[in-house]
Design a protein that fits this description.
There is one protein chain. With 212 residues, the protein is an alpha/beta fold. It has a single domain (3-204), classed as Spore Coat Polysaccharide Biosynthesis Protein SpsA, Chain A, CATH 3.90.550. Helices cover 38% and strands 17% of the residues. The chain is built from eight helices and seven strands. A seven-stranded mixed sheet has the order 3-2-1-4-6-5-7, with helices on both faces. The longest helix has 17 residues, at 28-44. The protein is globular and about 45 Å long.
Length: 212
């Protein structure tokens, strides 16, 4: 099964506010873009992925991610993360009704294509499935096989909410790069330890990141 990955990205100027302890307001947009670029590049390199659709209203992010090969979907709802994901999935399936669709966070700078492929292969066994984040509270990936609605419930305690919605929780090990999203300085340190993509590495070099 080949998947279309839908990645939501808010306007860069408002992104990654929880990194304020690590990055100044002037640096956070560049970091958010670098995270998204490395996430998109890794997803496009994954053998299980046929297409990547990025839902964003940010012109700079749209241009940069389109240059990598992503399809850009305008964030027409403008109603936040879950509205953007539902819209993206609808746009994908309006063109290809039988698509398998997976929502993926835009802040997975250590993402490895082989690990993403393993997660998607496991997700294909269920109508809907999700992968908890490294903190075991949130969600980094939500998948809907052909014929199943995505029904995204990202945000606070999304692990519990996706489980309550009937999605199967994927209890995989050795897929740390798919779990490690970046919201805080500690998250960024963890991602750097795993090994981030080249754009994040360049952007992070401008930061002074203290030891945990």
């Amino acid at each position: 099964m080949r998947w279309t990955v839908v990645i939501p990205l808010k306007p860069l100027a408002r992104a990654k506010s929880r990194l304020a302890d690590t990055a100044s307001a002037g640096l956070r947009p560049a970091l958010a873009l670098a995270f998204a670029q490395d996430t998109v590049a890794a997803a496009l390199a994954c053998e299980a992925v046929g297409d990547v659709a990025v839902v964003t209203g940010d012109p700079l992010a749209g241009r940069e991610l389109a240059a990598l090969g992503a399809r850009i979907v305008a964030d027409e709802p403008g109603g936040g993360l879950n509205a953007a994901l539902a819209h993206g999935a609808d746009v994908v399936r309006s063109r290809e009704p039988g698509s398998a669709v997976a929502a993926l966070n835009a802040d997975l700078p250590a993402l490895r294509p082989a690990e993403l492929a393993r997660v998607l292969r496991a997700a294909a066994e269920f109508p809907r499935a999700f992968l908890p984040d490294a903190a075991a509270i949130g969600t980094t990936l939500l998948a809907a096989s052909p014929g199943a609605e995505l029904l995204p419930a990202f945000g606070t305690d999304s692990r519990a909410r996706h489980r309550a919605s009937g999605a199967a929780e994927l209890g995989l090990d050795a897929v740390d790069s798919v779990r490690q999203d970046v919201d805080t300085g500690d998250d960024l340190r963890a991602a750097l330890t795993l090994g981030v993509g080249p754009r994040t590495l360049t952007a992070a070099a401008r930061l002074l990141i203290p030891e945990a």
